[in-house]
Amino acid sequence: MERIAVIGAGTMGNGIAHVFAQKGFKVNLIDLRQASLDRAIATITKNLDRQVKKELISEEDKQACLNNLSTHTDMPSAVSDRQLVVEAATERVDLKLQIFKDLDANAPKECILATNTSSISITQIAAVTNRPEQVVGMHFMNPVPVMKLVEIIRGYATSDAVTEKIMSLSRELSKVPVEVNDYPGFVANRILMPMINEAIYTLFEGAGGVNEIDTVMKLGMAHPMGPLQLADFIGLD
Predict the structure, then answer these.
(1) Could you say which of 47, 116, 121, 151 is catalytic?
(2) Active site (annotated) includes residue 119
(3) Domains of the chain, CATH where assigned
(4) Which of the residues 14, 118, 121, 170 is marked catalytic?
(5) pLDDT tens, position by position, for the chain (237 residues)?
(6) Catalytic residue flag (residue 77)
(7) Whose CB has fewer CB within 10 Å in the chain, the N or C terminal residue?
(8) Residue 139 designated active-site
(9) pTM for this predicted structure
C-alpha cells in the first residue's frame, strides 16, 4: 500500500497526513477550503521543524515528508487512485454518512475506507456503502505524531483481511494498534468520558478544586494530565 488520501485538514487530519507522509506514503490531503489546507501544511511544517530541532529527523527527512504531501479541494479526483482513504472530518453523523456515500462512488473498488471517528458507529457508516466489509475504524489519538495508540474498530461486516491489513499498516507508522469492537465510545472514550464527567461532578459538588482533582489523578493514578485539564484540552468552548 502506497497511496493514501486523508479527508479533513483539521487537527486530526493534518496529523494523520503527517505520519503517513513521514513514513514514505504518498498522501492526498483533502478539504473543501484551500485556506484550511494551507494552514494544515503550515502546521505540519512547524511540527517537522520541531523534530529537526530536536535532532529526531534531518532536514532531508523533513523535505521528503513535505514532498509526499499534496493538497486537493476536489474529493472525487483526489481519491480516484487511492488504496486507502482515512476520513477525519467533523464529528457529525450526517456529514460522515454523506462523505462515505461519495467515497463509495469515487474510490476504486478495492480501496479500504477508514474513519477516524472517536465514537460514531462503524457499522452505521459502512451501511451507506456497497463495500461494508472494507470499512473500518482507525481512531488515532491527539496529537497524532506523538501518541502511539490507534484504536482499530471492526464494524459488523468488516472483514478479517481488512482488519489485519490496517493493524499491520498502523505498525508501519510506528503506532501500537489495538483491535476493538463497534460499541458506543469503543474503548477509549467509553472509559475516558465517564471519568471526565465524574471529575466535573466532583468539582460541582465541592469535593475538591480544579487543581486538587487534577493533582490527585496525576500523582495518585499516574495520569500525564488531570481529567479537567484534559477536558479543556479536548475542548469545552
Answers:
(1) 151
(2) no
(3) 3-181 (3.40.50.720), 187-234 (1.10.1040.10)
(4) 118
(5) 899 999 999 999 999 999 999 999 999 999 999 999 999 999 999 999 999 999 999 999 999 999 999 999 999 999 999 999 999 999 999 999 999 999 999 999 999 999 999 999 999 999 999 999 999 999 999 999 999 999 999 999 999 999 999 999 999 999 999 999 999 999 999 999 999 999 999 999 999 999 999 999 999 999 999 999 999 988 877
(6) no
(7) C
(8) yes
(9) 0.91
CB half-sphere exposure, 143, CA atoms < 13 A: 6
What is each CA distance from 229 to 10, 68, 91, 95, 148, in whole angstroms? 21, 35, 22, 29, 20
Output DSSP code: residue 185: T
Please give the Cα distance from 199 to 203 (Å, whole number).
6
Separation of first and last alpha carbons in the chain: 39
Which 3 state secondary structure label does DSSP give 84?
A: strand
Closest to 37 measured CA to CA, from 81, 83, 6, 80: 6
